[in-house]
Amino acid sequence: QDTNLYVEVIDDLQQIAETIGNETIYLRFGRYVKSIKESEAARATDPSFYTDQETRLDEAIKTTELDKDATYIIVTDLFIENKNLIGGKLHQLKKPLNKVLDGGQSIGIIGIMNSFNGTIYGIPISGGVTTYSRAKKRPFYIMIIGDQKNIHKIKTKLEKQYFTNNANEYKF
Q: DSSP string spanning 130-171?
């Protein structure tokens, strides 16, 4: 039996975020980044929340420039289309990551294997892209940007809650 941790982890991330700083701000990102209320962020466990077909991770990372003292938690599948991994498009992603590190902040990425029942789109093949509909597992990633102490607090809380007996299901 494959484990579906996504819903539980997302719910707990909201509670963990409250313990890290004074205020929790939620942003939704796809083609654009927009501020959302906590109640809308809670819908992130519902498939209807995911309607934007383009993931501009670079735009989400740029929001970390808003407050250098804040801790940012970005949940993503880290899927980046081929066209965004070459030339100027790749620079769009590398530039905000380098800016985070140059600004003295840290980046932690937690990969969590999760059960999956659906179709994976946009898989690169020679001459184009394809889909795959027989996947039983697919990872999701929690990218944490901010002070190293806060990154480790979040990591430790998630480890204690979910991975004490099942360390193979995640990587930090």
A: EEE---SEEEEEEEEEE-HHHHHHHHHHHIIIIISS-GGGEE
Determine what percent of the chain falls in helix, strand and coil, rounding each to the nearest 5.
Answer: 45, 25, 30
pTM for the predicted model, two decimal places: 0.84
Strand 120-125 relative to strand 106-115, pairing: unpaired
H or E stretch covering 123:
strand 120-125
The closest of 168, 169, 165, 153 to 12, measured between CA atoms, is: 153
Overall average pLDDT of the 134-154 stretch: 91
Q: pLDDT at position 133, please? A: 92
C-alpha distance across the termini of the chain, in Å: 23
Q: Which residues contact 85 (CB under 8 A, 6 or more apart)?
A: none
